[in-house]
Write a sequence for this structure.
Protein backbone atom coordinates (compact mmCIF):
# COMPACT_ATOMS: atom_id res chain seq x y z
CA UNK A 1 0.00 0.00 0.00
CA UNK A 2 1.07 3.56 -0.71
CA UNK A 3 -0.56 6.91 -0.09
CA UNK A 4 -3.49 7.47 -2.41
CA UNK A 5 -3.50 10.52 -4.64
CA UNK A 6 -6.34 11.95 -2.51
CA UNK A 7 -4.34 11.63 0.76
CA UNK A 8 -1.24 13.06 -0.90
CA UNK A 9 -3.23 16.00 -2.20
CA UNK A 10 -4.77 16.59 1.25
CA UNK A 11 -1.34 16.64 2.92
CA UNK A 12 0.10 18.99 0.28
CA UNK A 13 -2.85 21.31 0.82
CA UNK A 14 -1.95 21.44 4.53
CA UNK A 15 1.82 21.96 4.36
CA UNK A 16 2.49 22.94 0.75
CA UNK A 17 4.39 21.02 -1.92
CA UNK A 18 7.77 22.12 -0.57
CA UNK A 19 7.15 20.49 2.83
CA UNK A 20 5.76 17.22 1.49
CA UNK A 21 8.39 14.70 0.37
CA UNK A 22 7.96 11.25 -1.13
CA UNK A 23 11.10 11.00 -3.24
CA UNK A 24 13.55 8.12 -2.54
CA UNK A 25 16.22 10.39 -1.02
CA UNK A 26 13.88 11.96 1.54
CA UNK A 27 12.30 8.60 2.34
CA UNK A 28 15.71 6.99 2.86
CA UNK A 29 16.98 9.86 5.05
CA UNK A 30 14.05 9.33 7.43
CA UNK A 31 14.11 5.52 7.47
CA UNK A 32 16.61 5.05 10.29
CA UNK A 33 17.90 6.49 13.55
CA UNK A 34 20.92 5.55 15.70
CA UNK A 35 19.58 1.99 16.13
CA UNK A 36 20.34 -0.80 13.65
CA UNK A 37 16.97 -1.35 11.96
CA UNK A 38 15.47 0.59 9.06
CA UNK A 39 11.97 1.01 7.64
CA UNK A 40 10.69 3.21 4.82
CA UNK A 41 7.64 5.45 5.14
CA UNK A 42 5.44 6.41 2.22
CA UNK A 43 5.96 10.13 2.75
CA UNK A 44 7.61 12.69 5.01
CA UNK A 45 5.83 15.91 5.99
CA UNK A 46 7.32 18.95 7.75
CA UNK A 47 4.69 20.93 9.68
CA UNK A 48 5.46 24.35 11.13
CA UNK A 49 2.45 24.91 13.39
CA UNK A 50 0.19 23.06 15.79
CA UNK A 51 -2.69 23.69 13.42
CA UNK A 52 -0.86 21.88 10.62
CA UNK A 53 -0.07 18.93 12.87
CA UNK A 54 -3.73 18.76 13.89
CA UNK A 55 -4.88 18.82 10.27
CA UNK A 56 -2.37 16.11 9.30
CA UNK A 57 -3.56 13.89 12.15
CA UNK A 58 -7.19 14.39 11.13
CA UNK A 59 -6.35 13.11 7.65
CA UNK A 60 -4.33 10.21 9.06
CA UNK A 61 -7.10 9.30 11.50
CA UNK A 62 -9.80 9.33 8.83
CA UNK A 63 -7.70 7.21 6.48
CA UNK A 64 -6.11 4.98 9.21
CA UNK A 65 -2.59 5.90 8.06
CA UNK A 66 0.28 5.25 10.54
CA UNK A 67 2.17 8.34 11.73
CA UNK A 68 5.66 8.31 13.27
CA UNK A 69 6.83 11.55 14.84
CA UNK A 70 10.51 12.36 14.43
CA UNK A 71 13.06 14.97 15.43
CA UNK A 72 16.77 14.65 14.72
CA UNK A 73 16.70 10.84 14.70
CA UNK A 74 19.47 10.43 17.28
CA UNK A 75 17.68 7.97 19.54
CA UNK A 76 19.27 4.57 20.12
CA UNK A 77 16.25 2.29 20.44
CA UNK A 78 14.49 2.57 17.08
CA UNK A 79 11.75 4.78 18.47
CA UNK A 80 11.62 7.10 15.45
CA UNK A 81 11.70 4.39 12.77
CA UNK A 82 8.42 4.10 10.77
CA UNK A 83 8.07 0.39 11.53
CA UNK A 84 4.68 0.13 9.80
CA UNK A 85 5.39 2.64 7.02
CA UNK A 86 2.79 5.40 6.71
CA UNK A 87 3.84 9.03 7.27
CA UNK A 88 6.90 10.38 9.04
CA UNK A 89 5.92 13.61 10.79
CA UNK A 90 9.25 15.44 10.98
CA UNK A 91 9.05 18.27 13.52
CA UNK A 92 12.42 19.90 12.91
CA UNK A 93 10.84 22.99 11.33
CA UNK A 94 8.83 23.65 14.48
CA UNK A 95 11.96 25.09 16.04
CA UNK A 96 10.96 28.35 17.72
CA UNK A 97 11.82 29.32 21.27
CA UNK A 98 8.46 30.93 21.96
CA UNK A 99 9.21 32.62 25.27
CA UNK A 100 11.98 32.81 27.88
CA UNK A 101 10.76 33.96 31.28
CA UNK A 102 13.79 33.97 33.59
CA UNK A 103 11.96 35.90 36.30
CA UNK A 104 9.44 33.04 36.52
CA UNK A 105 11.99 30.30 35.73
CA UNK A 106 10.39 28.76 32.66
CA UNK A 107 10.75 28.63 28.90
CA UNK A 108 8.23 27.76 26.17
CA UNK A 109 9.55 25.93 23.11
CA UNK A 110 8.39 24.08 20.05
CA UNK A 111 9.49 20.42 19.73
CA UNK A 112 12.08 21.00 16.99
CA UNK A 113 14.29 23.24 19.13
CA UNK A 114 17.73 21.67 19.52
CA UNK A 115 18.74 21.13 23.14
CA UNK A 116 22.11 22.81 22.59
CA UNK A 117 20.49 25.86 20.98
CA UNK A 118 18.18 26.19 23.96
CA UNK A 119 21.18 26.04 26.30
CA UNK A 120 22.87 28.87 24.37
CA UNK A 121 19.74 31.00 24.45
CA UNK A 122 19.30 30.46 28.18
CA UNK A 123 22.95 31.13 29.05
CA UNK A 124 22.62 34.82 28.22
CA UNK A 125 19.94 35.02 30.91
CA UNK A 126 22.05 33.12 33.44
CA UNK A 127 19.94 29.95 33.24
CA UNK A 128 20.17 26.43 31.82
CA UNK A 129 17.98 23.39 31.07
CA UNK A 130 19.53 20.48 33.01
CA UNK A 131 18.75 17.36 30.89
CA UNK A 132 21.90 16.83 28.79
CA UNK A 133 21.89 13.66 26.67
CA UNK A 134 25.18 13.02 24.89
CA UNK A 135 23.45 14.08 21.65
CA UNK A 136 22.38 17.46 23.10
CA UNK A 137 24.07 19.44 20.32
CA UNK A 138 21.88 17.62 17.77
CA UNK A 139 18.84 16.16 19.51
CA UNK A 140 15.58 18.08 19.76
CA UNK A 141 13.52 18.90 22.82
CA UNK A 142 10.60 16.96 21.34
CA UNK A 143 12.81 13.90 21.08
CA UNK A 144 14.13 14.48 24.60
CA UNK A 145 10.54 14.50 25.85
CA UNK A 146 9.58 11.43 23.81
CA UNK A 147 12.44 9.44 25.33
CA UNK A 148 12.49 11.14 28.76
CA UNK A 149 16.16 11.85 28.10
CA UNK A 150 18.74 12.02 30.87
CA UNK A 151 22.51 12.46 30.66
CA UNK A 152 25.46 12.91 33.03
CA UNK A 153 23.79 15.74 34.98
CA UNK A 154 20.70 13.72 35.91
CA UNK A 155 22.39 12.46 39.10
CA UNK A 156 21.90 15.91 40.62
CA UNK A 157 19.25 17.49 38.45
CA UNK A 158 16.97 14.67 37.31
CA UNK A 159 15.66 13.74 33.86
CA UNK A 160 13.40 15.48 31.35
CA UNK A 161 10.09 14.67 33.07
CA UNK A 162 11.29 16.58 36.15
CA UNK A 163 11.31 19.79 34.09
CA UNK A 164 7.99 19.58 32.29
CA UNK A 165 5.53 22.17 33.57
CA UNK A 166 3.08 21.92 30.70
CA UNK A 167 2.55 20.41 27.26
CA UNK A 168 0.49 21.04 24.17
CA UNK A 169 -0.27 17.72 22.48
CA UNK A 170 -2.09 16.72 19.29
CA UNK A 171 -3.90 13.41 19.71
CA UNK A 172 -4.40 10.74 17.05
CA UNK A 173 -7.81 12.23 16.25
CA UNK A 174 -6.30 15.65 15.57
CA UNK A 175 -7.72 17.13 18.78
CA UNK A 176 -5.37 19.53 20.59
CA UNK A 177 -5.10 19.21 24.35
CA UNK A 178 -3.19 21.42 26.77
CA UNK A 179 -2.03 20.39 30.22
CA UNK A 180 -0.13 22.05 33.04
CA UNK A 181 0.90 25.68 33.37
CA UNK A 182 4.04 27.80 33.97
CA UNK A 183 3.51 27.42 37.71
CA UNK A 184 5.82 25.17 39.69
CA UNK A 185 2.90 24.36 41.99
CA UNK A 186 -0.12 23.19 40.00
CA UNK A 187 -2.24 20.29 41.24
CA UNK A 188 -5.22 20.86 38.96
CA UNK A 189 -6.41 17.32 38.29
CA UNK A 190 -4.27 14.57 36.79
CA UNK A 191 -0.71 15.28 35.61
CA UNK A 192 -0.78 13.61 32.16
CA UNK A 193 2.39 15.39 31.04
CA UNK A 194 4.33 12.71 32.88
CA UNK A 195 2.51 10.06 30.87
CA UNK A 196 3.34 11.62 27.51
CA UNK A 197 6.98 12.10 28.50
CA UNK A 198 8.74 8.84 27.65
CA UNK A 199 5.83 7.54 25.56
CA UNK A 200 7.96 7.66 22.37
CA UNK A 201 5.21 9.30 20.32
CA UNK A 202 2.74 6.45 20.85
CA UNK A 203 0.13 8.58 22.68
CA UNK A 204 0.28 11.97 20.97
CA UNK A 205 2.43 14.54 19.20
CA UNK A 206 3.98 17.20 21.45
CA UNK A 207 3.77 20.54 19.65
CA UNK A 208 4.79 22.87 22.48
CA UNK A 209 6.42 22.44 25.88
CA UNK A 210 6.64 24.67 28.91
CA UNK A 211 9.83 23.73 30.74
CA UNK A 212 11.30 24.62 34.09
CA UNK A 213 14.75 26.21 33.91
CA UNK A 214 17.43 26.55 36.57
CA UNK A 215 19.94 29.31 37.40
CA UNK A 216 23.36 28.44 36.03
CA UNK A 217 25.85 27.46 38.76
CA UNK A 218 28.47 30.06 39.64
CA UNK A 219 31.31 27.54 39.53
CA UNK A 220 32.11 24.00 38.35
CA UNK A 221 35.04 21.83 39.48
CA UNK A 222 36.17 18.55 37.93
CA UNK A 223 38.19 15.63 39.25
CA UNK A 224 39.46 12.40 37.72
CA UNK A 225 39.77 9.51 40.17
CA UNK A 226 41.66 6.32 39.23
CA UNK A 227 40.92 2.91 40.76
CA UNK A 228 42.51 -0.53 40.65
CA UNK A 229 39.35 -2.14 42.04
CA UNK A 230 35.88 -1.46 40.64
CA UNK A 231 34.27 -2.16 44.01
CA UNK A 232 36.01 0.95 45.32
CA UNK A 233 34.19 3.11 42.78
CA UNK A 234 30.80 2.09 44.17
CA UNK A 235 32.00 2.64 47.74
CA UNK A 236 33.15 6.14 46.80
CA UNK A 237 29.88 7.04 45.09
CA UNK A 238 27.79 5.84 48.02
CA UNK A 239 29.89 7.59 50.65
CA UNK A 240 30.02 10.86 48.72
CA UNK A 241 26.23 10.98 48.58
CA UNK A 242 25.89 9.89 52.22
CA UNK A 243 28.10 12.83 53.16
CA UNK A 244 25.48 15.16 51.70
CA UNK A 245 27.44 15.94 48.53
CA UNK A 246 25.44 15.61 45.33
CA UNK A 247 27.79 15.92 42.32
CA UNK A 248 26.47 17.18 39.01
CA UNK A 249 28.01 14.13 37.33
CA UNK A 250 29.87 10.94 38.24
CA UNK A 251 30.90 9.10 35.08
CA UNK A 252 32.59 5.70 34.99
CA UNK A 253 34.90 4.26 32.31
CA UNK A 254 36.14 0.67 32.49
CA UNK A 255 39.57 -0.64 31.48
CA UNK A 256 38.45 -1.46 27.92
CA UNK A 257 37.33 2.13 27.37
CA UNK A 258 40.41 3.61 29.05
CA UNK A 259 42.70 1.72 26.66
CA UNK A 260 40.52 2.53 23.66
CA UNK A 261 40.85 6.24 24.42
CA UNK A 262 44.60 5.96 24.91
CA UNK A 263 45.02 4.01 21.67
CA UNK A 264 43.44 6.83 19.67
CA UNK A 265 44.08 9.98 21.69
CA UNK A 266 47.12 9.36 23.91
CA UNK A 267 46.00 11.78 26.62
CA UNK A 268 47.79 10.06 29.48
CA UNK A 269 45.11 7.87 31.04
CA UNK A 270 46.50 4.98 33.14
CA UNK A 271 46.17 1.85 31.01
CA UNK A 272 46.28 -0.56 33.96
CA UNK A 273 43.43 1.07 35.89
CA UNK A 274 40.33 -1.06 36.35
CA UNK A 275 38.14 2.02 36.32
CA UNK A 276 38.11 5.82 36.26
CA UNK A 277 35.52 8.13 37.79
CA UNK A 278 35.04 11.59 36.30
CA UNK A 279 33.32 13.85 38.81
CA UNK A 280 31.81 17.31 38.39
CA UNK A 281 30.51 19.42 41.27
CA UNK A 282 28.79 22.75 40.74
CA UNK A 283 27.37 25.57 42.82
CA UNK A 284 28.80 28.58 44.68
CA UNK A 285 32.59 28.94 44.40
CA UNK A 286 33.38 28.23 48.07
CA UNK A 287 31.05 25.22 48.12
CA UNK A 288 32.47 23.51 45.03
CA UNK A 289 36.05 24.13 46.19
CA UNK A 290 35.25 22.46 49.48
CA UNK A 291 33.25 19.60 47.94
CA UNK A 292 35.77 18.62 45.26
CA UNK A 293 38.47 18.23 47.91
CA UNK A 294 36.08 16.32 50.20
CA UNK A 295 35.37 13.95 47.31
CA UNK A 296 39.11 13.52 46.79
CA UNK A 297 39.52 12.67 50.48
CA UNK A 298 36.64 10.16 50.37
CA UNK A 299 38.01 8.58 47.20
CA UNK A 300 41.46 8.18 48.74
CA UNK A 301 39.97 6.52 51.81
CA UNK A 302 38.13 4.14 49.49
CA UNK A 303 41.14 2.88 47.57
CA UNK A 304 41.66 5.47 44.83
CA UNK A 305 45.15 5.17 43.39
CA UNK A 306 45.39 8.64 41.90
CA UNK A 307 43.28 11.82 42.04
CA UNK A 308 43.62 14.71 39.59
CA UNK A 309 41.67 17.90 40.31
CA UNK A 310 41.36 20.38 37.44
CA UNK A 311 42.31 23.97 38.30
CA UNK A 312 40.87 25.59 35.17
CA UNK A 313 38.13 25.09 32.61
CA UNK A 314 40.79 24.07 30.08
CA UNK A 315 42.09 21.35 32.41
CA UNK A 316 38.53 20.17 33.07
CA UNK A 317 37.83 19.99 29.33
CA UNK A 318 41.01 17.94 28.92
CA UNK A 319 39.86 15.49 31.59
CA UNK A 320 36.46 15.14 29.90
CA UNK A 321 37.85 14.89 26.37
CA UNK A 322 38.08 11.11 26.29
CA UNK A 323 34.64 10.54 27.82
CA UNK A 324 32.98 12.88 25.35
CA UNK A 325 34.50 11.17 22.33
CA UNK A 326 34.22 7.56 23.46
CA UNK A 327 31.17 6.64 21.33
CA UNK A 328 32.82 8.06 18.23
CA UNK A 329 35.91 5.98 18.98
CA UNK A 330 33.84 2.86 19.61
CA UNK A 331 32.03 3.31 16.30
CA UNK A 332 35.38 3.04 14.50
CA UNK A 333 36.07 -0.42 15.86
CA UNK A 334 33.49 -2.31 13.81
CA UNK A 335 30.72 -1.85 11.24
CA UNK A 336 27.99 -2.08 13.91
CA UNK A 337 27.93 -0.59 17.40
CA UNK A 338 25.21 -1.57 19.87
CA UNK A 339 24.83 0.76 22.88
CA UNK A 340 22.60 -0.62 25.63
CA UNK A 341 21.57 1.22 28.79
CA UNK A 342 20.55 -1.28 31.44
CA UNK A 343 20.41 0.34 34.87
CA UNK A 344 21.12 -1.20 38.29
CA UNK A 345 21.30 0.08 41.88
CA UNK A 346 24.55 1.99 42.42
CA UNK A 347 25.93 -0.65 44.78
CA UNK A 348 25.57 -3.27 42.03
CA UNK A 349 27.54 -1.34 39.38
CA UNK A 350 30.86 -3.22 39.86
CA UNK A 351 29.08 -6.60 39.85
CA UNK A 352 27.17 -5.58 36.71
CA UNK A 353 30.37 -4.59 34.94
CA UNK A 354 32.05 -7.87 35.88
CA UNK A 355 28.95 -9.73 34.79
CA UNK A 356 29.11 -8.02 31.40
CA UNK A 357 32.76 -9.05 31.09
CA UNK A 358 31.82 -12.67 31.73
CA UNK A 359 29.07 -12.40 29.13
CA UNK A 360 31.62 -11.00 26.66
CA UNK A 361 33.89 -13.99 27.32
CA UNK A 362 31.02 -16.47 27.13
CA UNK A 363 29.92 -15.26 23.70
CA UNK A 364 33.38 -14.24 22.45
CA UNK A 365 32.42 -10.59 21.96
CA UNK A 366 34.03 -7.21 22.61
CA UNK A 367 31.99 -5.29 25.19
CA UNK A 368 33.15 -1.92 26.53
CA UNK A 369 31.42 -0.11 29.37
CA UNK A 370 30.91 3.53 30.22
CA UNK A 371 28.11 4.81 32.35
CA UNK A 372 26.64 7.19 34.85
CA UNK A 373 28.10 5.70 38.04
CA UNK A 374 26.15 8.02 40.32
CA UNK A 375 22.76 6.63 39.22
CA UNK A 376 23.72 3.12 38.05
CA UNK A 377 22.89 3.74 34.40
CA UNK A 378 25.47 1.71 32.45
CA UNK A 379 26.13 1.54 28.73
CA UNK A 380 27.51 -1.88 27.75
CA UNK A 381 28.62 -1.24 24.17
CA UNK A 382 29.08 -4.16 21.79
CA UNK A 383 31.36 -3.81 18.76
CA UNK A 384 30.18 -6.22 16.06
CA UNK A 385 29.05 -6.67 12.45
CA UNK A 386 25.36 -7.28 11.84
CA UNK A 387 26.22 -8.86 8.48
CA UNK A 388 28.15 -11.63 10.26
CA UNK A 389 25.12 -13.82 10.94
CA UNK A 390 26.86 -16.25 13.26
CA UNK A 391 28.33 -13.44 15.36
CA UNK A 392 25.05 -11.55 15.37
CA UNK A 393 23.30 -14.56 16.91
CA UNK A 394 25.84 -14.41 19.73
CA UNK A 395 25.21 -10.68 20.11
CA UNK A 396 21.46 -11.23 20.49
CA UNK A 397 22.03 -13.88 23.16
CA UNK A 398 24.49 -11.63 24.97
CA UNK A 399 22.03 -8.70 25.01
CA UNK A 400 19.37 -10.93 26.54
CA UNK A 401 21.86 -12.08 29.20
CA UNK A 402 22.76 -8.47 30.00
CA UNK A 403 19.11 -7.60 30.58
CA UNK A 404 18.54 -10.74 32.65
CA UNK A 405 21.52 -9.82 34.82
CA UNK A 406 20.33 -6.24 35.33
CA UNK A 407 16.83 -7.36 36.30
CA UNK A 408 18.20 -9.98 38.71
CA UNK A 409 20.04 -7.14 40.46
CA UNK A 410 16.88 -5.09 40.84
CA UNK A 411 17.60 -2.95 37.79
CA UNK A 412 15.63 -2.09 34.66
CA UNK A 413 15.83 -2.46 30.88
CA UNK A 414 16.47 1.19 30.09
CA UNK A 415 17.70 4.22 31.98
CA UNK A 416 17.43 6.78 29.17
CA UNK A 417 17.31 5.25 25.67
CA UNK A 418 13.72 4.00 25.81
CA UNK A 419 12.20 0.73 24.58
CA UNK A 420 11.26 1.37 20.92
CA UNK A 421 12.10 -1.61 18.74
CA UNK A 422 15.33 -2.50 20.51
CA UNK A 423 13.84 -3.75 23.79
CA UNK A 424 10.26 -4.48 22.76
CA UNK A 425 10.70 -8.26 22.95
CA UNK A 426 12.27 -8.00 26.42
CA UNK A 427 9.40 -6.06 28.02
CA UNK A 428 7.73 -9.20 29.48
CA UNK A 429 10.97 -9.82 31.41
CA UNK A 430 10.45 -6.52 33.20
CA UNK A 431 6.65 -6.21 33.50
CA UNK A 432 3.90 -8.71 34.27
CA UNK A 433 1.10 -9.22 31.77
CA UNK A 434 -1.39 -7.12 33.75
CA UNK A 435 0.98 -4.16 33.67
CA UNK A 436 1.55 -4.52 29.93
CA UNK A 437 -2.21 -4.78 29.42
CA UNK A 438 -2.67 -1.56 31.40
CA UNK A 439 -0.24 0.23 29.06
CA UNK A 440 -2.17 -1.11 26.08
CA UNK A 441 -5.44 0.10 27.62
CA UNK A 442 -4.02 3.60 27.99
CA UNK A 443 -2.78 3.49 24.40
CA UNK A 444 -6.13 2.28 23.07
CA UNK A 445 -8.04 4.99 24.92
CA UNK A 446 -6.23 7.81 23.08
CA UNK A 447 -5.27 5.99 19.88
CA UNK A 448 -8.00 3.41 19.20
CA UNK A 449 -6.85 2.74 15.64
CA UNK A 450 -3.18 2.37 16.64
CA UNK A 451 -1.88 4.88 14.10
CA UNK A 452 0.65 6.66 16.37
CA UNK A 453 4.08 5.05 16.05
CA UNK A 454 2.67 1.52 15.72
CA UNK A 455 4.84 -1.56 16.09
CA UNK A 456 6.67 -0.28 19.15
CA UNK A 457 6.43 -1.29 22.80
CA UNK A 458 2.60 -1.08 23.08
Amino acid sequence: MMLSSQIKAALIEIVGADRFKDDPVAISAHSYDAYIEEASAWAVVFPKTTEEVSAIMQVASEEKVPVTARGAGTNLSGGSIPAEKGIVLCLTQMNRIVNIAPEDRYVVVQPGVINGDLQKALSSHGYFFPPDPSSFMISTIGGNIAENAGGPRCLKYGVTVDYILGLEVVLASGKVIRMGSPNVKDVTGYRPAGLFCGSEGTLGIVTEATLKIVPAPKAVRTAMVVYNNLNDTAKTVSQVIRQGILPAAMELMDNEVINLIENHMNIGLPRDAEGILLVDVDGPEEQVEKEIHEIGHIAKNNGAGNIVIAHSKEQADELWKGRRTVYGLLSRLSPTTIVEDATVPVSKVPAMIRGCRKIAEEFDLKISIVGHAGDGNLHPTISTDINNKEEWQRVEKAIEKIFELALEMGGCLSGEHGIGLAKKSFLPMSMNLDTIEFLRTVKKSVDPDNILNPGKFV
Notes: The first strand starts at residue 20 and ends at 21.
